[in-house]
């Protein structure tokens, strides 16, 4: 039956069918065009231009001047060091704080877990500026934390938390935590609880079952979360600019200063290219390890 | 009481008391996630112009300050306008692209998808200075159009991801059925597919608005003058001097995002 169908209909309409097929594929491809045009016009093209600008030195000729300056200058080196330090610390703190909470949520019934999830989503959808401002209020010398701590005798003198590294770290961890929790939670929910039952059945203690069964299975989610937090931290601007008080200078802030204060597109572009290349290398290596879909899914 | 204490709470028969630390840590972290943002609410009713917490006297002067300030109101209006326009750019483009991707072959998808989500992968500061350069060339700095394009750029990948996940749970053969019955592809989409993914589309639209409304860095670079967004004005105010009017605005922003969030939770993601 099938072969006769092929013999007759297939051949007779083959040309026409192929044409329709092609037409449909072009139409569908056309649907993605406006989107792609915006991405190409507003991201890929401008960044290509930044790339070009980064090779234009002060004397308006092609040179590696800007990169040489980044490489040789102690100030730039320090900025990169600060950026990496803050990003790594923030990522680790997020993991330490986020993993237990996410584990706890994954053990709850769906209903309670959803209530906790709202608790994670509220800060996620609260404006970055609002949260940064809140920490500014809480952490300053006369702020709530210092007042309480002095009253309770935790420390005798008010400690300055804002406008330095500790303030920046606290603010960034608070802002990044949901980015770690959400992919991790999605992953932990998919872990089959029967695996743990089986482990217990075979005589594993709860601790052992957790470390040999649950933890390895949660690694893809943890990894996706760590990755997105780290990459976001590398390019972070708002919180360090407001909570760092000019003492914590990260790459993104330097890029912005180079343009707003010094109109130095070359220097800014070179920094931007370095930041972009580092980010892309990390994402590329990571995409070989986990599926990129898991990264950056805000839902 | 003892039975709860010694009761097993997971598949591995771990006892409640051995896990008490987990509950403690989780509750503390959850507390730290939610509560700090809320301090701005009492702050906004403070009578003092210094950041003292808790405030000694209460007043509504910062709200008056906000509602009587032409600058703040104009900035708010700009943000709302840009947010709404972003919905109308990002959502249709995102839906179209998602539909195209779902119906294309795996190879095309694997090439196009990373390009499409690149606005999420490239550090925002680079997107911002790239746009700034581009808009300078076309005299679009400080224009509403520039802001809408910039915000749509970062909202589109979110729309794309949400609609893609909705379409991946949807059986495209339903459209084929409609078309075999004589409906055009467009009609099949609007009458069969769209109603089934409408909740995802609404939440994608809400997310587009919030993304635009909360966006700081692109606004910082490409907006200004009369078309300054509220986030830009807030950032500059926070950097230069701390004016408690920001507490009042923050409270308003918290209310707006909470309303949106509750709305989205009520809609529910179709997967649940």
Briefly say what this structure is.
The complex is a heterodimer of chains A (299) and B (272). Chain A has 299 residues and is mostly helical. Chain A has helices at 2-31, 33-53, 65-72, 74-107, 110-125, 128-139, 144-152, 165-190, 193-201, 206-234, 238-243, 251-260, 265-289.
Q: Any overview of this molecule?
A:
- Chain A has 299 residues and is an all-alpha fold.
- Chain A has two domains: 1-40; 69-294, MetI-like (MetI-like fold, Orthogonal Bundle), CATH 1.10.3720.
- Chain A has helices spanning 2-31, 33-53, 65-72, 74-107, 110-125, 128-139, 144-152, 165-190, 193-201, 206-234, 238-243, 251-260, 265-289.
- The longest helix of chain A is centred in the N-terminal third of the chain and has 34 residues, at 74-107.
- Chain B has helices at residues 2-6, 20-38, 40-44, 61-67, 70-102, 106-116, 118-121, 124-137, 144-168, 173-180, 185-196, 198-214, 217-222, 230-240, 245-267.
- The radius of gyration of chain B is 24 Å and the shape is globular.
- Chains A and B meet through helix 1, helix 2, helix 4, helix 5 and helix 6 of A and helix 2, helix 5, helix 6, helix 7 and helix 8 of B.
Task: List its traits.
heterodimer, A: 299 residues, mainly alpha, MetI-like fold, 2 domains, disordered C terminus, B: mainly alpha
Q: What is the level-2 CATH architecture name of the largest domain in chain A?
A: Orthogonal Bundle
Distance between the termini of chain B: 34 Å
What name does the CATH topology of the largest domain in chain B carry?
Answer: MetI-like fold
Number of domain modules of chain A: 2
Tally of separate helices of chain B? 15
Oligomer: heterodimer
Name the biggest interface: A-B, 94 and 96 residues
Count the helices of chain A. How many? 13
Euclidean distance between termini CA atoms of chain A:
48 Å
Instruction: Give the overall form of chain B.
Output: globular
Give the tally of structural domains of chain B: 2
For CATH, the homologous superfamily of the largest domain in chain B is named as: MetI-like
Which ranges of chain A are low-confidence, i.e. pLDDT below 50, for 5 or more consecutive residues? 294-299
CATH architecture of the largest domain in chain B: Orthogonal Bundle
């Amino acid at each position: 039956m099938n072969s006769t169908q092929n013999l007759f209909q297939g051949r007779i309409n083959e040309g026409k069918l192929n044409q329709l097929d092609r037409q449909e594929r072009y139409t569908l491809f056309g649907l993605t065009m406006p989107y792609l045009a915006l991405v190409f016009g507003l991201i890929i093209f401008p960044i290509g231009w930044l790339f070009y600008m980064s090779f234009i030195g002060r004397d308006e000729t092609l040179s590696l001047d800007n990169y040489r300056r980044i490489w040789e200058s102690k100030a730039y080196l320090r900025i990169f060091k600060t950026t990496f330090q803050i990003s790594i610390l923030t990522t680790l703190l997020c993991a330490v704080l986020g993993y237990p909470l996410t584990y706890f949520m994954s053990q709850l019934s769906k209903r309670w877990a959803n209530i906790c999830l709202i608790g994670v989503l509220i800060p996620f959808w609260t404006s970055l500026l609002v949260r940064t401002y809140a920490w500014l209020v809480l952490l300053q010398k006369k702020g709530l934390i210092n007042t309480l701590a002095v009253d309770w005798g935790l420390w005798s003198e008010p400690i300055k938390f804002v406008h330095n590294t500790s303030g920046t770290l606290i603010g960034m961890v608070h802002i990044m935590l949901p980015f770690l929790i959400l992919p991790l939670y999605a992953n932990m929910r998919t872990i089959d609880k029967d695996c743990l039952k089986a482990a217990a059945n075979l005589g594993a203690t709860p601790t052992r079952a957790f470390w040999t069964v649950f933890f390895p299975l949660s690694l893809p989610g943890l990894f996706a979360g760590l990755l997105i937090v780290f990459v976001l931290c590398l390019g972070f601007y708002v919180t360090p600019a407001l909570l760092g008080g000019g003492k914590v200078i990260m790459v993104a802030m330097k890029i912005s200063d180079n343009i707003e204060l010094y109109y130095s597109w070359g220097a800014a572009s070179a920094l931007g290219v370095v930041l972009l290349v580092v980010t892309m290398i990390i994402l590329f290596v990571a995409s070989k390890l986990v599926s990129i879909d898991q990264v950056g899914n805000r839902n | 009481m003892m039975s709860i204490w010694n009761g097993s709470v997971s598949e591995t028969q771990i006892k409640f008391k051995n896990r008490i630390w987990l509950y403690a840590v989780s509750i503390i972290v959850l507390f730290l996630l939610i509560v700090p943002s809320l301090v701005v609410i009492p702050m906004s009713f403070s009578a003092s112009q210094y950041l003292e917490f808790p405030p000694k006297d209460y007043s509504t002067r910062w709200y008056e300050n906000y509602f009587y300030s032409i600058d703040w109101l104009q900035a708010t209006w700009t943000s709302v306008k840009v947010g709404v326009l972003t919905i109308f750019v990002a959502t249709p483009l995102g839906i179209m692209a998602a539909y195209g991707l779902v119906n294309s072959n795996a190879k095309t998808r694997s090439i196009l998808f990373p390009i499409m989500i690149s606005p999420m992968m490239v550090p925002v500061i680079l997107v911002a200075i790239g746009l700034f350069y581009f808009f300078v060339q076309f005299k679009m700095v400080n224009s509403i159009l520039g802001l809408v394009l910039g915000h749509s750029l970062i909202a589109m990948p979110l729309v794309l991801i949400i609609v893609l996940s909705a379409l991946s749970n949807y059986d495209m053969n339903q459209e084929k059925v409609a078309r075999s019955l004589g409906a055009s592809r467009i009609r099949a989409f609007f009458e069969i597919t769209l109603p089934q993914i409408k909740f995802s589309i609404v939440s994608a639209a809400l997310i587009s608005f919030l993304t635009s409304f909360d966006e700081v860095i692109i606004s910082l670079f490409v907006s200004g003058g009369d078309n300054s967004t509220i986030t830009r004005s807030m950032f500059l105010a926070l950097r230069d001097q701390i004016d408690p009017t920001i507490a009042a605005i923050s409270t308003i922003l918290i209310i707006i995002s909470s309303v949106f969030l509750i709305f989205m939770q009520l809609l529910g993601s179709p997967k649940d």
